[in-house]
Inverse folding.
């Protein structure tokens, strides 16, 4: 069988990467006679070889890093006002007193504060992380006692807990986990038509391969751990992925696939120990 | 630099204060103070969490607040605050921001009007705020100073309305019966003690001036509209006494008619002997501040305070030169009551006085009978409006909205006015005909009048159904929205009344109210029986319209048919509710890409069918929806109902007409002439392809969706299942 027209670029990418779904003998036959495709394949091979070389050459134990333990925050009450104030011949007020709609937690060193507020306009519980020293509050992992789900703060330090009702239990507690590694990239630079990938590297030389493919209705994000610095290797890790309109927290696997992931924009990936 | 914990401490304090049941104005001021701290402080945290925590409640307080209670700097600060919330809070707090901005704008407009001298003069002629409308009740303004030692707010002056009503009681009663409503917290408090002293001084004054016997006894009812307010009682002394004089003068025949000027306010305690005692210096300043920034023209202050009062007033007038407030100094009750600027009196003619005395004393039956006969003659033939005649038809046949009077009017079959019900909210002149129904609900032969006020402003009367009997008694009123069952249905949200219908189901009246809201678009349908008891509720995911009753299941009881929008599904929908089952819940779908519908309660609708947009509609409609046709739903053939769906914004009468049997299965689809013409035009323009109309009708028919057992099922699928 021979081809009447030249295959598209993404077919050649799959051919070069050895992916399934392409008819290798037919493509090889075509390649023998088509100079344009020979040029294209040569170019793609060079590109992917350079990527592999980058991955091989990167050192994996360059900088030691500190992995701070999670910050624990417990409830605080800063004001003591008697609920019934004796007023001077006070007239009868409205019978319905509104109930408090916020809970506040603080770390022992008073560096971090968390407010859990019920948003009456959406009916959702929202959590806000505040820093007394103006530190960045985006991309931090939040764990709430009594809940099994982990949450990731957005650019304003906010987490939408949805319809979950929290605090629960007698001694509610918030844990804030700092990321062990952070990767940031602009999704628009990823080639969308093919299953090609890009390599991103954290400040501590953890190396991650990110690829994105497009279906009719959404995008699929594929994350592959290429290399982890020794201080992280072998540890149970969580990975959090955040785009402009979505965030997910997962247990770290060698290869992770995330469906329905978002629109073009900034993509941040965090590793948490 | 202020720390986030200082901010949080202030926030927790505000949280506690908002739970105390304070007046809405004070709640707003406390909110302003807190957010002022947040805005001024170079704090490392953003305002989002605090906006989420407090703005809904501040928005509610703003909707309830009286714009006339704020001072100029407070009104400006409110406007600035609303602008800041709009800038940093975005869409999430738009409703609350709008409420705050509205009260700020209303307050600024009010103050601007007050500070204009002409407007202040006009206040002289206008009635007092909230003046009592009862014939025997007297309303007058009084000034207080509210104290908030626990809130760290400075004291502030407040203008309140005192209403006084006098009635005679038997002379054998040992003393006058004095009742003070609202502020009294314990029987021996200073309000009651001051009221007793003031009434005693008033009685002695009326005895001296008019010869009113001290042996007569009265019940004097004092009421202060003071919800959420905090103040002391002695400031009411002069107001109590003047109110008592005016109220007693209304039921006794005196040589003068005594009235209280609406533009006057009274301040100062009164001693038993009738002397005014001075006001505390700081309190005096607060009261003058309040009076200056109000509609008042005269303020009565104890003479001992006049020097200090002039100083305070001069300072205010230098800031606002256009505003004129006159101070009336007085040292005794006689001075106040005799001052024609604040208590104008009109002397009766000797003849009139004598006639009224005789009539009042009932000492000349012959004169009374003669006068009565003469008066009846004139009343019957010259004076009395027809509605007071015994033969007047008092059965409402029509009801309407009087825009000039802002009232609901009931008229008989001759269009003569039977009664009029004023509304406090500003009623809208458009669309009210859909919201008034005159019907005999209880089968007594007299019609009831049902009304849903249409108003675009926040009001306690919005979204309510009022039912008046033929004799103008409020039979019941019911709230027509359903809270907390659909996204967006939170406190403070207002709806637009859409339709009011009364239908007969199995011979019994059923009232159907529909109110609608936006973002998300939804309609709240409530069903009531003739007594106003609820028969169920239902929320449609888009605007709804009740169209007809039809006994679809042949059980002898009609079902209710609605032709609606379904915004979640972007098309027209037919809804059937069966009162045999418990009508409750929300229309499908229960999943949406924009709104979280996972927690809504699925509805108990008997049937729910969707009519998707045709290929013509996709090109020709102004938006993504097709629309229920104005023809609605009709039963043109026995056992077949036709559903009319509009498919074009380009021309009228472009209709797809779905014929359904009583099980709501589509038996056929036809198209109006305009539909065919329009589609042919688009074919000629090359925008649509030519079709075989019979096949096209089958395709449109097969596109209809039915909600069955938790999912959408196509008409085609049902057809295949029925005829495999």
């Amino acid at each position: 069988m021979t081809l009447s027209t030249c295959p598209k670029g993404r077919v050649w990418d799959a051919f070069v990467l050895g992916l399934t779904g392409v008819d290798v003998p037919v493509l090889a036959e075509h390649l023998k006679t088509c100079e344009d495709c020979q040029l294209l394949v040569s170019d793609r091979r060079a590109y992917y070889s350079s990527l592999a070389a980058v991955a091989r050459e990167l050192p994996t134990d360059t900088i030691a890093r500190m992995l701070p333990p999670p910050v624990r925050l417990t409830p605080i009450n800063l004001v003591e006002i008697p609920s019934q104030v004796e007023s001077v011949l006070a007239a009868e007020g409205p019978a319905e007193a509104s109930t408090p709609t916020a809970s506040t937690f603080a770390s022992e060193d008073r560096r971090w504060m968390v407010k859990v507020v019920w948003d009456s306009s959406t009916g959702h519980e929202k959590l806000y992380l505040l820093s007394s020293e103006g530190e960045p509050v985006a991309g931090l992992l939040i764990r709430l006692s009594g809940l099994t789900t982990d949450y990731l703060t957005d650019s304003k330090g906010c987490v939408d807990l949805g319809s979950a009702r929290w605090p629960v239990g007698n001694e509610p507690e918030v844990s804030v986990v700092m990321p062990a590694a952070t990767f940031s990239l602009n999704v628009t630079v990823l080639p969308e038509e093919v299953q090609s990938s890009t390599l991103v590297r954290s400040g501590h030389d953890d190396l991650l391969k990110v690829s994105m493919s497009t279906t009719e209705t959404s995008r699929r994000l594929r994350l592959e751990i290429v290399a982890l610095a020794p201080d992280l290797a072998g540890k149970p890790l969580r990975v959090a992925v955040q785009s402009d309109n979505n965030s997910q927290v997962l247990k770290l696997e060698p290869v992770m696939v995330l469906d329905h992931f978002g629109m073009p924009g900034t993509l941040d990936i965090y590793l948490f120990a | 630099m202020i720390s986030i914990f200082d901010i949080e401490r202030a926030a927790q304090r505000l949280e506690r204060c908002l739970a105390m049941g304070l007046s809405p104005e004070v709640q707003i001021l406390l909110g302003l103070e807190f957010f002022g701290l947040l805005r001024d402080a170079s704090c490392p945290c953003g305002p989002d969490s605090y906006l989420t925590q407090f703005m809904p409640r501040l928005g509610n307080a703003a909707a309830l607040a009286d714009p006339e209670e704020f001072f100029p700097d407070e009104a400006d600060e409110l406007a600035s605050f609303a602008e800041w919330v709009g800038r940093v809070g975005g869409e999430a707090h738009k409703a609350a921001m709008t409420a705050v901005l509205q009260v700020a704008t209303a307050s600024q407009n009010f103050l601007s009007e007050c500070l204009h001298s002409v407007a202040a003069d006009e206040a002289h002629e206008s009635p007092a705020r909230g003046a009592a409308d009862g014939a025997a009740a007297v309303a007058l303004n009084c000034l207080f100073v509210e104290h908030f030692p626990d809130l760290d707010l400075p004291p502030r002056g407040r203008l309140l309305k005192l209403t006084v009503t006098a009635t005679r009681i038997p002379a054998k009663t040992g003393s006058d019966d004095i009742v003070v409503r609202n502020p009294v917290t314990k029987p021996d408090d200073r309000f009651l003690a001051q009221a007793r002293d003031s009434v005693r001084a008033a009685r002695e004054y009326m005895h001296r001036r008019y010869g009113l016997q001290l042996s007569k006894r009265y019940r004097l009812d004092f009421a202060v509209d003071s919800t959420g307010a905090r103040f002391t009682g002695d400031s009411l002394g002069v107001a109590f006494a003047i109110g008592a004089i005016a109220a007693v003068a209304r039921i006794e025949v005196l040589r003068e008619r005594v009235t209280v000027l609406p533009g006057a306010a009274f301040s100062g305690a009164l001693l038993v002997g009738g002397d005014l005692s001075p006001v505390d210096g700081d309190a005096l300043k607060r009261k003058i501040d309040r009076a200056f920034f109000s509609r008042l023209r005269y303020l009565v202050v104890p003479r001992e305070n006049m020097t200090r009062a002039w100083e305070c007033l001069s300072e205010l007038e230098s800031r606002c030169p256009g505003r004129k407030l006159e101070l009336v100094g007085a040292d005794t009750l006689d001075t106040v009551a005799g001052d024609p600027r604040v208590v104008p009196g009109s002397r009766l003619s000797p003849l009139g006085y004598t006639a009224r005395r005789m009539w009042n004393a009932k000492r000349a039956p012959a004169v009374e009978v003669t006068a009565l006969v003469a008066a009846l003659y004139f009343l019957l033939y010259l004076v009395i409006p027809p509605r007071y005649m015994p033969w007047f038809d008092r059965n409402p046949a029509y009801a309407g909205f009087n825009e000039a009077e802002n009232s609901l009017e009931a008229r008989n079959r001759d269009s003569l006015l039977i009664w009029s019900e004023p509304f406090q909210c500003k009623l809208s002149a458009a669309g009210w005909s859909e919201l008034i129904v005159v019907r005999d609900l209880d089968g007594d032969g007299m019609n009831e009048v049902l009304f849903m006020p249409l108003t675009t402003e926040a009001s306690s009367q919005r979204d309510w159904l009022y039912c008046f009997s033929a004799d103008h008694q409020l039979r019941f009123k019911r709230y027509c929205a359903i809270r907390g069952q659909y996204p967006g249905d939170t406190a403070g949200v207002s709806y637009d009344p859409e339709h009011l219908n009364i239908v007969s189901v199995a011979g019994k009246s059923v009232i159907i109210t529909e109110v609608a809201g936006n973002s998300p678009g939804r309609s709240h349908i409530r069903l009531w029986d003739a007594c106003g008891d609820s028969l169920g509720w239902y929320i449609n995911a888009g605007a709804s319209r009740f169209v007809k009753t039809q006994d679809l299941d042949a059980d002898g009881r009609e079902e209710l048919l609605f032709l609606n929008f379904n915004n979640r599904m972007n098309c027209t929908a037919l809804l059937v509710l069966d009162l045999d089952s418990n009508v409750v819940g929300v229309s499908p779908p229960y999943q949406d890409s924009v709104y979280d519908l996972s927690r809504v309660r699925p509805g108990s609708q008997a049937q729910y069918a969707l009519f998707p947009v045709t290929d013509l509609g996709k090109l020709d409609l102004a938006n993504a929806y097709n629309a229920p046709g104005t023809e609605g739903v009709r039963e043109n053939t026995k056992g077949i109902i036709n559903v009319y769906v509009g498919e074009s914004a380009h021309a009228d009468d472009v209709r797809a007409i779905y014929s359904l049997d009583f099980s709501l299965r589509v038996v056929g689809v036809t198209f109006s002439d305009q539909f065919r013409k329009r589609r042919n035009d688009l074919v000629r323009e090359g925008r649509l392809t030519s079709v075989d109309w019979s096949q096209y009708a089958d395709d449109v028919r097969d596109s209809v969706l039915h909600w069955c057992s938790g999912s959408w099922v196509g008409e085609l699928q049902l057809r295949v299942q029925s005829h495999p």
Notes: Confidence is low (pLDDT under 50) at residues 58-64, 83-98, 189-194 of chain A. Chain A touches chain B through 46 residues (CB under 8 Å).
